[in-house]
Amino acid sequence: MTLYQKTLGDFQQSYVGFAALVIIGQSCLGGVAAMYILENGTNIFQMIQLGLVVITCTLVNVSILAQLSPKTVFNMTIFSAVLSILAIAMNVLII
Predict the structure, then answer these.
(1) What secondary structure, in 3-state letters, does 7-73 show?
(2) pLDDT for 54-95, tens place per residue?
(3) Which of 20, 30, 10, 36 is nearest to 81 (CA)?
(4) What is the structure's pLDDT at 95?
(5) N or C: which end of the chain has fewer CB within 10 A?
(6) CB neighbours (10 Å) of residue 10?
(7) Which pTM does this prediction carry?
């Protein structure tokens, strides 16, 4: 059994509890990413980054509120977290 399958199984089993944690976590991580993006200015590249981070974090929250399947929410959460972490890394280390 892979780490993904085990974690997905745990997520599906305790979906209601994890949903609350995902909403809080995604909102905080997206806020941190937005802060680092805006720290570097407001040019078009920064605004595209900011838009992508805000849209993905919002879509995760909407998917929970719309009661989509736990697997869909889980996959969207992973994508959003990776995108936010990449945006933070790009704006702290590279730019």
Answers:
(1) HHHHHHHCHHHHHHHHHHHHHHHHHHHHHHHHHCCCCHHHHHHHHHHHHHHHHHHHHHHCCCCHHHH
(2) 999 999 999 999 999 999 999 999 999 999 999 999 999 876
(3) 30
(4) 62
(5) N
(6) 12
(7) 0.90
